[in-house]
Amino acid sequence: MTKQQWTLKARPQGIPDRSEVDIETRTIDHVPDEHLLIECLYFSMDPAIRGWMSDVPNYLPPIPLGDSVRSSVVGKVLQSEADGFSTGDLVVGTGGWETHGVVPAAYFSVIPPDSPFPAHYYLSALGAVGLTPYFGLLRAGKAAAGQTLLMSAAAGAVGSIGGQIGKILGQRVVGIAGSDEKCRWVTDELGFDSCINYKTCGDMEQAIRGACPEGVDLFFDNVGGEILDAALMNLNKDANIVFCGSISNYNATEPVPGPYNWWQVLARSVTVQGYLISDYLSEFPEGQAQISEWINSGQLKFKEHIVDGFENTLDAYNLLFEGKNDGKLMVKV
Prior knowledge:
By secondary structure, the protein is of the alpha/beta class. Helices cover about 25% and strands about 30% of the residues. It has helices spanning about 50-55, 130-140, 155-170, 180-190, 205-210, 225-230, 265, 285-295, 315-320, and strands at about 1-10, 20-25, 35-45, 70-80, 90-95, 100-105, 110, 150, 170-175, 195, 215-220, 235-245, 270-275, 305-310, 330.
């Protein structure tokens, strides 16, 4: 059978374009042992993919040139050569931007057939988008009631859920987002205590100080760059930073200076925790069970932004870097 895939043809310089990532047709002629043939139904659009496109060392190896772009996907099993998977199963795991794929079974899990939620929830609130802030706050960040949580990219998929989890845990939550509309959403709809529009606030360090008059106990960093620098100047003694992402730097074409205020880590005895959701793989069922309860009780709300059409994948992906996605971004194949 044939498939279409978005092939990585060259290492992107800045935001990826069709000279670097483009559609090709390939042939599938064999499904090895311990592999699955799946029809891809949804792709997850995640900032981390941009790092995998480059050849800079990362927590996963670079995507080889000539391969499909790596991504979390939801798919339907068409052929199984592995125990525990049957034809017709809906599965979620690490695949690629392709209409069909032959994938290692070890990279996938079966979506419970009795799940009351749509399959694409397993790429959003019940997948990495929800589990990342869940374990990032509870485990890596050691979140506790009474703390002030500062959440960058607060209106994004991870940040919006993370802020709500902070409120459930009894924290005072201050978000940082890129428009007044996004700030209103996280405060009025999601219950954040305050939100800073980083595009209009002027002096970011002073804006954080005004929104967090008692200082910041936990900073959940999805952005890096100037926002990290400003946050460093507002941390309390023994504060925690959960370093989850650095989207401000992903498309940089020149070396990016380190944080100018990094000395605050020493001055205030700050703990910086680099954080990968894969570190908590064995605990995923616990996290999914708790998040499911919060969704059903109405304590946790989230948006999904689903773009229709395989051919629109690259344009959809680049919405992440233009700030134009409205919720967890996915492509419906």
